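Researcher: Next sequence.
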Amino acid sequence: RQQAQTGAVVVVQDLLLEGLTAYINLNRAMSMFDYAERSVVNVQKQTGLEQSRVDMGGGFTSDVLQAKSQLAGAQARLARAKGALVNAGNRFRALFGGESSADDYKQRIVVPQDLLPASLDDAVALARSRNRQLEALRLGTQSARAEIDRVRGAELFPKINAVAENKLMRNPAGVLGDRNEQTFKLEMTYQFNAGLASVHSLTAAREALAVSRSRLDDTRDLVEEQVRNAWQNLVSARENASHLDNQTNIVGEFLRMARDERVLGLRSLIDVLSGETTLINAQSDAASAVADVAIAAFTLLKVTGTLDLDILK
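Model: Next structure:
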């Protein structure tokens, strides 16, 4: 029963992580599609303005061509974002079913930072004690050990029965009076199979215990590897998100200065256009990195055995 309950928890945790990942990826895909659409609209606007300047004799045809090149790149990014959004929606629909409005998926899921282990060593120790797969295998090893005791007791040892019997008879055989008979017996039975089936059953039970222990050791190593990978993925995702956020700030400051210099005639349209496109793409990449951090965090919670529905309330 404990094994079945633990197995049910493993399934729930797997499904919960799958659902969280699908939601986060859908949220990410929608955000990236919005950024890609904004980029296309912005490049189209700037390209149209530059084309008007050329038609009026005040612009450069080369700038228009370069702007059109950036427009093609932005449109390609939008096409990829649209495909990713469709795929993310299909995955979400396969898990949860039904159709809902886009606004239902714009709320970002907050990662419970206080539940994340403080260090890699803490994460490994937590997984060793809380990981449900390891717990199920430990229970399996206990069951295999109990099976050895059962086989030994049921098939190799004799059965000893103590029987006590008391009979009280009134007027037996028509003779007035009572007669009391008490019987005590000790019985011993022993089954012997010429083919040594009992010995073979005990050997099979011991081999099953050895297999269970080996599987537990192997899974323990595998879980530790998963924990270390999940920890590194979280660290890398955090660093990547931090760098991309810094890039967004730098590009935003460059764009502000480039626009001012454009007014003074010190910058071309392409410089400003390139800055605007870079900023939108950086914002998109930063939003995607935040999603990676969330998925890595929930994956770490899952492999350490602490992921459950209550952490989302």
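Model: The longest strand covers residues 159-170. The beta strands are 159-170, 178-189.
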